[in-house]
């Protein structure tokens, strides 16, 4: 009987190969992807035996090395396990010891169709082969080498077209760049103008440096030009902060005409726009940055942490004016001396050899798939569509965002309530759901289903046990 079951499993395990010959890309990744898809769809189940490597190589008419790489990739993803002479089997899901499904951390999802480990090893290997290792381990004080700034210019071409590398400063992440811009281009007590619902890192930097954050009224298109003009005149504000594309947290994108109007107000009042634009590449047909519309009155910030991987900690800032650029670099050095040379060199290598573009394509593909998953699971709820890394979900009237966040946390789900992004009493009643921080798509789906069930319930009091 046991032998019969093994034979049946072997026969069944070939079904997941159907259509493989029509797909394009590295064969070993296609095989691993097909295996993962079959497990997700229930064609393969834990304990099913996979074909022997030689048999599979013959069936697919590929060499044995390709199958070995495919099975190794599947093992890396915890999809299969080897049992010596008995063969390779679909893994039983590993016990997840973490109690919380994290829907709160806004990071890129694992890239679809990209062997990230291979990309990382190859990139680091190329860096170590080509770079002066002593230079990788010493201080770099100039805001980026010529090669690093040229790489930044290449990365920014979709947003700007040609960018002069001399106008670019390489920074250790967007948060450091935002803080340095506030420090360099305002004085203690100055007002920084922003929309009411904003990225909390900007609020922290403004308050830490003794500046004041003043919110400007918005409408469906974003910050209102008339309200901005009044605020500029009233407060003599030097800085305006905007996150105009797939905004964090609301996912709103400011249309072109509104960008032109905002840029005109900034020019008229001599203010400078800090344009925090981490998600521009995720958007479909995104309007040009405000920094293209008012290049002498804007500072553009683009980070690789949201597009590729947080571990790079590399951001590019575009400042045209030489004096303003030097002030910015001096401010940056006061708390973040430089970008880490090794990761900056890796980012540069990846951009020049095309790996960064390949990696981003995989991240965007996975992000789109996750948005589709969320749209299906949260069907009937508004504002779940999008292209970036998160969803802004308005809540039913029986929930407040803080109540839902607390209740979800008690049930093992971390979400971000509106209070994190706004201290206004008129803030939206919504939560931000981040789609990238849970590596496994099946676990993400489980978390979203749990959240959907919670939204349909009425709030209940939460009290811990008395011990």
From TrEMBL:
Entry's family note: In the C-terminal section; belongs to the class-I pyridoxal-phosphate-dependent aminotransferase family.
Q: Which Pfam families match?
A: Aminotran_1_2 (PF00155), GntR (PF00392)
According to UniProt, the name of this protein is PLP-dependent aminotransferase family protein
Give the source lineage, highest ranks first.
Answer: Bacteria, Pseudomonadati, Pseudomonadota, Betaproteobacteria, Burkholderiales
Q: Which SUPFAM superfamilies match?
A: PLP-dependent transferases, Winged helix' DNA-binding domain
User: In what residue span(s) does the HTH gntR-type domain sit?
Assistant: 25-93
Which SMART domains does the protein's record reference?
Answer: HTH_GNTR (SM00345)
User: Any idea which GO molecular function terms this record carries?
Assistant: transaminase activity
Against PROSITE patterns, the record matches this protein to: HTH_GNTR (PS50949)
Q: Which UniProt keywords apply?
A: Aminotransferase, DNA-binding, Pyridoxal phosphate, Transcription, Transcription regulation, Transferase
């Amino acid at each position: 009987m046991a032998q019969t079951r093994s034979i049946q499993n072997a026969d069944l395990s070939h079904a997941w190969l159907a259509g493989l010959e029509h797909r394009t890309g590295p064969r070993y990744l296609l095989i691993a992807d097909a295996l993962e898809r079959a497990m997700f769809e229930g064609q393969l189940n834990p304990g099913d035996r996979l074909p022997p490597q030689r048999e599979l190589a013959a069936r697919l008419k590929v060499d044995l090395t390709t199958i070995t790489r495919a099975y190794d990739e599947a093992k890396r993803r915890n999809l299969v396990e080897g049992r010596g002479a008995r063969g390779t089997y679909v893994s039983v899901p590993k016990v997840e010891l973490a109690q919380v499904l994290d829907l709160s951390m806004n990071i890129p999802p694992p890239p679809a169709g990209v062997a990230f480990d291979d990309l990382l090893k190859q990139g680091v290997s190329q860096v170590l082969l080509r770079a002066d290792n002593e230079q990788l381990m010493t201080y770099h004080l100039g805001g980026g080498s010529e090669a690093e700034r040229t790489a930044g210019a290449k990365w920014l071409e979709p947003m700007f077209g040609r960018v002069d590398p001399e106008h670019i400063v390489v920074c250790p992440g967007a948060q450091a760049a935002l803080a340095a811009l506030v420090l360099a281009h305002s004085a203690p007590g100055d007002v920084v103008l922003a929309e009411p619902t904003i990225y909390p890192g900007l609020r922290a930097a403004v308050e830490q440096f003794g500046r004041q954050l003043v919110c400007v009224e918005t409408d469906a298109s974003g910050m209102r030009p008339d309200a901005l003009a009044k605020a500029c005149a009233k407060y003599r504000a030097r800085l305006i902060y905007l996150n105009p594309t797939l905004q964090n947290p609301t996912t709103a994108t400011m249309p072109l005409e509104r960008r032109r109007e905002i840029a005109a107000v900034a020019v008229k009042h001599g203010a400078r726009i800090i344009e925090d634009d981490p998600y521009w590449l995720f958007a479909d047909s995104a309007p040009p940055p405000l920094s293209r519309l008012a290049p002498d009155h804007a500072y553009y910030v683009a980070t690789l942490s949201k597009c590729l991987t947080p571990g790079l900690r590399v951001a590019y800032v575009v400042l045209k004016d030489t004096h303003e650029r030097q002030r910015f670099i001096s401010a940056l050095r006061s708390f973040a001396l430089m970008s880490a040379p090794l990761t900056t060199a890796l980012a540069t290598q990846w951009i020049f050899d095309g790996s960064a573009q390949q990696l981003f394509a995989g991240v965007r593909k996975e992000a789109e798939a996750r948005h589709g998953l969320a749209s299906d699971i949260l069907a009937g709820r508004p504002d779940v569509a999008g292209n970036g890394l998160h969803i802004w979900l308005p809540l039913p009237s029986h929930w407040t965002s803080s109540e839902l966040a607390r209740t979800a946390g008690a049930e093992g789900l971390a979400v971000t309530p509106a209070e994190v992004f706004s201290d206004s009493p008129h803030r939206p009643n919504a939560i931000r759901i981040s789609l990238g921080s849970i590596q496994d798509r099946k676990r993400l789906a489980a978390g979203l289903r749990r959240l959907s069930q919670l939204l349909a319930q009425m709030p209940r009091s939460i009290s811990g046990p008395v011990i």
